[in-house]
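Hi V.,

You were right to ask for the full record rather than a summary. Here it is.
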Amino acid sequence: MTRPKLLQIFGFISLSLLPFPSFITSPGEAAPFFSKDQNMEPSHYNAEGSPIFDSFDVDLLVKVLANTAFSPFFCFFIPVFFFFHGAKFTDQVFILSSAYFVFVSIFWFVRWCSKLYRNQHGLIFGPGPLDWSEQIVILTGGASGIGELLANTLAVRSVTVVVLDVKPIVTENYNITYYKCDVSKWEEVEAVSKRVIEEIGEPTILVNNAGVVQGKLIVDLSAEDVQQTFGVNTLSHFWILKAFLPSLLKKKSGHVVTVSSALGLTGVAQMTDYCASKAALVNLHESLRYELDKRYECPKIRTTLVCPGHVMTPMFQTVEFPRIPFFKFFCPSIQPVAIVKRIIAALDDQQSQTVFLPFYTNFIPLVGHLPSFLRDIVQWVSGADYAMRNFTKTSSRRPDEGPLPSGLHEKKV
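Predicted structure:
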């Protein structure tokens, strides 16, 4: 291949990346970090503006590439471009660009077939657009964080939202109804479910979002800590499904959203209870999918598993991360709005799927297959085993845990 031909290839691909600044958020949308020491930084943030490239990370790069260099539509025009610039069918540049187009097309075709099979051919003769005004959503943990934002966003779409939490949600939306309920206790969930069905109606969407983190070493965990973690993070999913899934089975349609965590796919120090409780949700989601498909014969009840990395919510405001640029680029923290957008997109698509955010979380399931020394290197680079060393529990505190230390508060997102 001649040098001018190579320059043409790189020039063509480079031109395709020029629009990428349009994806970058404007100053003020991305919140800067501030640090306590030189090596680690807390995860809380403020609302001040930040340089534009603070929002530049691997997720943005992947998004740009997915719509350009790795898009079948874009790749189709590469050999066409060279053909109209005088390349022959036998020229190496035309053959290589055509082969690249075929490779990218096969990759996307396989992904499409997987999605088609997972949704039981629903993508060909699937339902029409989701009528949001007809939906009744049961949302746990809706008083703060991701749940609060999701509840208010759905309410704007004229969705009837039922929030189950121990604390009331602060909202001005008339179509959000709050029921006080400790979702870790079956008796309360059972009683509230009867009231909801009688007063609001039978739900069509279940979003199990409630969560809590203790942030203690395993020996320091009290019996109450462990019971609260598994009660809120794991058992609540069983109780919500037991109480409300029959309504979905009756209609043979609906959607169940399970909010787990990337830490449900791996383990880190000082989060043994949290990781174990979230890992249980991954298997709960998979087992539920098979029960709906094979035993209940209700494949049109969709299931979505959400496995986010670090989300900047009050629950994790005192977590510390390495402040090196490498970490910020490859393992960025994400705002709750990113999770909410993906959940709403999954509901709107009416497809069963697994959501990994940000991009690096797609590779976490592979970490367990690495040689031990490589896995330890990954843990060391991420700083995961020391991220909780100065952690203070700021949300879902029990009366026996006392008030928050001075200087901290259970803030809103």
